[in-house]
């Protein structure tokens, strides 16, 4: 149903102002951000289609939506450009801006308090930052003596093994940031967050290298679009 045909109290903007943003569904919130649909497709329908589960064709092409809010916000700008109604730059820029604001809000929390007073925020921050990448990315959160975030750096890309992640570079950056501790992180584009044998071996290699300069490895977090896993919580550090 077109937005203008909805009862006034069912329109997303009026509903938000009357009852607060928590009263709106994901579709309604996204429709507010998009503002307009396309000819023959109202903005609510467009929002619903964007949030639908993706469909992968026989040739590997992607159709359908992005699998919810997280999938949409992690989408690459080129992926959004191919969606009917998002070909222009304005709406794509707004979606990218929302994701960046979310990242910065969580990063600010981590800079102001001890990271492990809010482990959920760490996972959320890493998911916002890494989970949607189409390739593997290895990153390090460098922490001060109070375990507050000093910097996040993406150090390596590609298939992650002991030979593709260089301990010397991780140690150099830890010294550069005068870090007292680190949280290691990488993504699994496949969607699983279970650590592989290579992940476990890499963690132990980096832990030993950083111990030589008195820098502790507090955790290794694996993220994917659907979740995150803390190796420390599973006794793997």
TrEMBL record:
Source superkingdom: Bacteria
Assigned keywords, A-Z: Hydrolase, Metal-binding, Metalloprotease, Protease, Zinc
Domain MPN: 115-237
Gene3D superfamilies documented for this protein: Cytidine Deaminase, domain 2
The keyword Protease is assigned to this record: yes
Species of origin: Ramlibacter lithotrophicus
Family designation: Belongs to the UPF0758 family.
Pfam families: RadC, UPF0758_N
GO MF entries: metal ion binding; metallopeptidase activity
Name of protein: JAB domain-containing protein
Keyword Transmembrane on entry: no
GO BP, sorted A to Z: proteolysis
